[in-house]
Amino acid sequence: MSTAPSAPPTAAPPPAIHFGRDDLPFVDIGDGSKLKVIQVDPGAGLWVIENVFQSGYRVQTHKHTGPVWGFTVSGAWKYAEYDYVNRAGSVLYEPAGSIHTLLCSEDDTRVWFHMTGSNLNLDAAGEVESVVDGPLTLAAYLALCEAQGLPRPSVLVGG
Amino acid sequence: MSTAPSAPPTAAPPPAIHFGRDDLPFVDIGDGSKLKVIQVDPGAGLWVIENVFQSGYRVQTHKHTGPVWGFTVSGAWKYAEYDYVNRAGSVLYEPAGSIHTLLCSEDDTRVWFHMTGSNLNLDAAGEVESVVDGPLTLAAYLALCEAQGLPRPSVLVGG
Amino acid sequence: MSTAPSAPPTAAPPPAIHFGRDDLPFVDIGDGSKLKVIQVDPGAGLWVIENVFQSGYRVQTHKHTGPVWGFTVSGAWKYAEYDYVNRAGSVLYEPAGSIHTLLCSEDDTRVWFHMTGSNLNLDAAGEVESVVDGPLTLAAYLALCEAQGLPRPSVLVGG
Amino acid sequence: MSTAPSAPPTAAPPPAIHFGRDDLPFVDIGDGSKLKVIQVDPGAGLWVIENVFQSGYRVQTHKHTGPVWGFTVSGAWKYAEYDYVNRAGSVLYEPAGSIHTLLCSEDDTRVWFHMTGSNLNLDAAGEVESVVDGPLTLAAYLALCEAQGLPRPSVLVGG
User: Fold this and answer.
1) Taking CB atoms and an 8 Å limit, are B1 and D152 in contact across chains?
2) Contact B6 D155 (CB under 8 A)
3) What are the Cα distances from residue D6, in Å, to A59, B45, B49, B158, C93?
4) Mean pLDDT of all residues in chain C?
């Protein structure tokens, strides 16, 4: 972002940005479940992450303020609120306003999430208990990298 | 939205949807300040509204989970956190994550807001006290139309 | 955008960015019609502009590849394809895929456009003749500022 | 989309929409390469697809008018313009304005694309030769399903 006097954009088209499987490290987020943050565009409210969940991993009931897509590569996970199970090859569209509780039922469940907006974590009464968004997740990821002795990762910050 | 077996899209391009100045009514939201809801796309987390604020109107400190643009046609308003004043001809870009408290200082301050995501209303300690989004604002608008004896408005629901 | 090793985001929320009526100059785009470019986020395909059209101004038939919103402050303009006229207070939603030909019928027609994607300019046979997007419009705006002896404007480049 | 008088939104949150691996058929798009269209939101210019490319598959040089993300599950593909190769676990961010030529170099290269805007197919001189977008791709997908004797698929049309 710049509000300084603008230079004319160059004629060259912007490059596509590639992240190979091992370009960014996974951090442990508990009991062997893992997180990698690939891109955060703070002003747009956009974040792209990858998780590897282990069986029994649970994400607190949350409401999305923007649309989210989940692409599952391996394993099995579901939302407690629905019957279907995400397995290898599943695509899940979560519209803004949707509310659900993630449960993982197989080890090495690997999922990419393309997310916009915030996750509003809800208590049993449906009240907002805490909020998770892209910048907070990036900060946690960087702190966990450092705490776990991993090199500082080159997350794409911006869009 | 449809997940029924898909019909091929027609060849005709979709029309642009026009809302003239008087096509949708304003409702009173207190002390003569007014609200009109023009479009809500729930799944995308998008909402487009118009406000007419009177001097002294205040909006609780809130954090945005998606980007917002404000286009001011008349009057004067500012965020308590910043010095600049929005007047006729002002454009304000509010990135996701921005936090501020709206104060109106002139009567008949007219502003269009193009919004994505939710407004997280914060208490003095910075905790989320309540959440406002497009569907909730639409529901409030429709209820106020009815309570104020106005015909049911044809808000664009979808995108 | 950065793919260098990431610094943790600061705790401070990002500021809202204000453009007062006279913060950015208008350039003449022919016969007294004018253009101001306020924001271009190239990677997101987003652009926010303001036009002042004079009666008789015409924009070639074009198709949008992303959604566009038009907010009219004064004057009168329409699309040749539809009957309604945009006047002070009008809001127009143009979904991706919509096709139309802008005609201005009153002097000093002032409109903000919140745009995503590209304008595909179509010839009489409906073939793409040229393409206009945010970065091209920004480059033209900066060149016209320079040619018209205006100071280099501080357009918001990014989101 | 509705511009009829609005009913108040229900209190129930919208469901997430799940597509299991075999819920939508692949169609052959030449020499064993395959396409599945999962979601098209025409007004937003959004489309989500899955491809299985075979070695030698090539996609004409194209420019994107909105951002695109590619998530690769297996195989190998690259853009002729860059050195890196997308393999299992790769994530590719293609900003609006990026231009490239897809080449597949291994059989059974499986990729999800989360796309916005249009693909402007460019000839050798860089001129727009044709345009591909979500609705056109959906129409082609439905026609190929029918031609290949597959049941009409329940693509998610909308958001």
Assistant:
1) no
2) yes
3) 35, 17, 15, 11, 17
4) 95
CB contact under 8 A, D120 and C135: no
Q: DSSP for C22-47?
A: TTS--EEEETTEEEEEEEEEGGGTEE
Taking alpha carbons only, the member of D6, C90, C110, C114 closest to residue B19 is C90
Looking at CA atoms only, how far is residue A1 from chain B in angstroms?
11
Q: Cα dist. A96→B119, B130, C152, D38 in Å?
A: 13, 17, 40, 18
For residue D29, which of D147, D152, D116 has the smallest C-alpha distance? D147
> Does the CB of B106 have a partner CB in chain C at under 8 Å?
no
| Distances from the Cα of A41 to the Cα of A117, C7, D65, angstroms | 11, 14, 18
CA C29-C72-D41 angle, 5° bins:
95
Pairing between β-strand A156-157 and β-strand A33-41 as defined by DSSP bridges: parallel
Cα end-to-end distance, chain A, whole Å: 10
Nearest to B89 by CA among A89, D124, C73: C73
Segment C88-126, tens digit of pLDDT = 999 999 999 999 999 999 999 999 999 999 999 999 999
| pLDDT average, residue stretch B76-92 | 97
Query: Given CB atoms, is B131 within the 8 Å cutoff of chain A?
Result: yes
CA distance A52 to A32: 8
User: Measured between CA atoms, how close is B1 to chain A, in angstroms?
Assistant: 11
Instruction: Give the three-state DSSP class for C17.
Output: strand
* ipTM metric: 0.95
Q: Which residues of A touch B42 (CB under 8 A)?
A: 95-97
Contacts of C45 in chain D (CB under 8 A): 65-67, 96-97, 116-117
Mean predicted lDDT score pLDDT of chain D: 95
Q: Pairing state of beta strands C99-104 and A91-94?
A: unpaired
Can you point out the beta strands (E) in B2-132? 17-19, 27-30, 33-41, 46-53, 58-64, 68-74, 76-79, 86-87, 91-94, 99-104, 109-116, 119-122, 128-132
Kindly state whether A32 is in contact with chain B, defined as any CB-CB distance less than 8 angstroms: no
List, in order, residues 6 or more apart from B57 with CB less than 8 Å away: B30, B31, B33, B102, B103, B104, B109
Task: List C-alpha distances in Å: D14 to A98, A143, B5, B143.
Answer: 5, 34, 20, 21
- Residue D53 has a pLDDT of 98
Cα separation, B121 vs B67, in Å, equals 16
Q: Are B45 and B114 in contact (CB under 8 A)?
A: no
- The model's pTM: 0.95
Q: How far is C66 from chain D (nearest CA, A)?
A: 5
- Given the DSSP bridges, would you call strands D76-79 and B58-64 parallel, antiparallel or unpaired? unpaired
CB pairs under 8 A between A and D: 109
Strands B119-122 and B58-64: antiparallel
**DSSP structural state of residue D70:** E
Distance, CA of A25 to chain centre:
14
Give the per-residue pLDDT at A12.
87
CA distance D147 to chain B (A): 14
